[in-house]
Amino acid sequence: MSVPILTFFNNKGGVGKTSLIYHLAWMYASLRKRVVAIDLDPQANLTAAFLDEDRIEAIWDNQSSGSTIFHCIKPLTGVGDIVEPVLQKITSDPYLIPGDVDLSGFEEAVSNEWPNSMGDNNLYRPMRILSSFWQVMQMGSEKIQADIILVDIGPNLGAINRSALIATDYVVIPLGADLFSLQGLKNLGPTLGSWKKLWQKRLDNWHTSPEAKSYPNFKLPDGKMEPIGYLCQQHGVRLDRPVKAYDKWVNRIPGIYREYVRKEPPDHTMKQQNDPYCLLTVKHYRSLVPMSQEHRKPIFNLTSADGAIGSHANAVQDAKKDFKALAKKIADKIGMAL
Ligand SMILES: Nc1ncnc2c1ncn2[C@@H]1O[C@H](COP(=O)(O)OP(=O)(O)O)[C@@H](O)[C@H]1O
Ligand SMILES: [Mg+2]
């Protein structure tokens, strides 16, 4: 059985993906789930959230195999095979497969193998490269018998992200309340649908090829990519912008999500606060954000010793409630017992 993979996806940056994955990883760990987080964004922001710079430098300097996601898959671009990842333990839990700025160098390989994987022969290598993120994630999760894998990716629709999505079972879409997020949402649904279809074709092509019989133990991801809901960020809201402008965009999200992502009839009367597809409205955490970054812990674990006193302490408790609720909703949707 493969471990379920959840990816936060939006081709728009700055909608809180990295920060949400970071907090959700900690929340699941505190709910006694075994979590592997993986950083597939070459910007490596998730890695920077979990690990201090000295530790990241040591990992990046250590060219030994498996130290970052890139070092796990790099041998594939030569004559080698995937290398098992070294998992970084973050105190007790969760675990991290570190990102790597060099990962952008893999874009070309995944891009080139996409058409090759639809050929008549020599399919093993392209299929191995296209599924390499999934292979590494499953190898890493097996080591610790993980319950869930959380994936952070960069804000684009490129070949690396296509491979990340092929590996994905469940997709959550974080959104800002603005025109750009809504426009992005209109692209996301069809993109997911098309990647899913194109990956199915490749799976069929592989399974009906004579070559498949030579690799009986070669497992491939299903490419399920099921959208389970969206999150709406309040922090992107410009403070000088009237509340009405925020409402205007927020109120359009449920309709657009249904139409473009779920392919359901748009329901223009559905309000975001009642929408079952809205998993959470993410509050603006203000000064708790730099505090959490400085102490390298999730907002909901900040204490008075970290500076979370007075109204901050209340905000910390609110954040804990919100992220626990989010973790439960997602667990429900993917059938994971807590
Ligand atoms: N709930 C929040 N409240 C306040 N600031 C936030 C919140 N979530 C994210 N941020 C800040 O917004 C910026 C973008 O967030 P990030 O998680 O990096 O987004 P993405 O990964 O989508 O680019 C970061 O500086 C982050 O610290
Ligand atoms: Mg990010």
Describe this structure in words.
The structure is a single chain. This protein is an alpha/beta fold and 338 residues long. The protein has one domain (5-286): P-loop containing nucleotide triphosphate hydrolases (Rossmann fold, 3-Layer(aba) Sandwich), CATH 3.40.50.300. The chain has twelve helices and eight strands. The chain has an eight-stranded mixed beta sheet with strand order 3-4-2-5-1-6-7-8, with helices on both faces. Helix 10 (243-262) links the parallel strand 7 (226-233) and strand 8. The chain is globular, with a radius of gyration of 20 Å. It starts with a strand and ends with a helix. Adenosine-5'-diphosphate (ADP) binds at residues 13-19, 45, 235, 282-285, 289.
CATH-defined topology: Rossmann fold
Please state the second-level CATH architecture.
3-Layer(aba) Sandwich
Chemical compounds bound to the protein: adenosine-5'-diphosphate, magnesium ion
Instruction: List the strand order in the largest sheet.
Output: 3-4-2-5-1-6-7-8
In the predicted model, the low-confidence regions spanning at least 5 consecutive residues are none
This entry's quaternary arrangement is single chain
Radius of gyration: 20 Å
Query: What does the largest sheet look like?
Result: 8 strands, mixed
Fourth-tier CATH superfamily name: P-loop containing nucleotide triphosphate hydrolases
Query: How much helix is in the residues?
Result: 40-55%
Strand content: 5-15%
The backbone outline, from C-alpha atoms, is globular
